[in-house]
Design goal:
alpha/beta; 13 helices; globular
Amino acid sequence: MSFHPPELEEIWLHPESVGSHLHRRFLKFYDPGIFKELSQNLSFAEEVAAPDQQLESTSKGTLSPSEFDRSKKRLLLTPFHGQFFKRCPGATQKKALACCNYHVLNLGLQCNFNCSYCYLQNYINSPMMKYYSNLHDAIDELKEMALEHQEQPFRVGTGEVIDSLSMDPITLYSRDLIEFFREFPKWTLEFKTKSDSVDQFLDVPHAGNVVVSWSINPQKVVSSEEHFTASLQNRLAAAEKVFLKGFQVAFHLDPMIYFEDWKDHYADLVRDIKGRFRPEDVNVISVGSLRIQPEQRHMMRARFGMKSLVMNSELFPSDVGKLRYPQHLREEMYRFVLNEFGSGWKIFFCMETPETWISAYANTPMKVPGLKDLFKPLPKLMVTLSK
């Protein structure tokens, strides 16, 4: 599968990132004329804002629709001096949601894909995408914790605020991470993507503890809502490719989108997966439904209009403050997927309440065969920022 670098208008360089490995990698794919260096004596906002363009950000500091659109065409290569490694945001809502003990490693911010439902629309306040040039610091941070908890089954994903692999043929960060996790076979590394970019790491030796996962939806949803992403068939073909190289594969049917003939399309999707993989071939399948912050509706409406599938159904406030489908509809959607897959598949619900688990699964996750290890509490990790 050939890789096509995303179209960028500008690539900005923090002074500490000039000449970095990441800078050199991007120079292999982009015209040197679009690279610009940040000055030491100007603030970030002053330098990157066009002289004739007033910032339109909302009072909360998030971007306006036009700013968010433009952020997809601009990239900043910069070091990051904060905490790379964190618990999944769901862990902060354990009183309302069942948490699977996931951890995230953030190596950038913002995504070159353009999904209508993306939560980053209500989260980003930077006028461009960011990739962090100091991967070595992230790995040092991981190593500190991995050495202390080598025997614990920590799961670490890189796809919370970026797509793990959409730019990876450029950064090649996957190769360094796979090599690092080979030293800690009890830990699991997960790349989560909507791309089909996998060729760049297939030759890297691994310890069998690397999961390559795909966020998937029926092609109707991909075409309507997941702009610039790989097609469903290309994602599944990429999954087959990594599986043949000994990597684990996983799928995330999340967010499920409700529309008039949703059952037919999701049934076709499940049949496609079952036609390519056996239950024992797939590490895990997570299922979740559309959920957004209330303020996000205005950004989505301005950027994608009312023809978007995600704007055509009613959402209601939930106990954690997000807008969601009503519980009875979520339960119907989850039961449908469970029935279509049948027995033997390791399936769990993402960001869901214990009540929904009991209604759809007839059990809590700790009592579902094959899921107990995912939801079993792990030690709380303490990060020491020595950088």
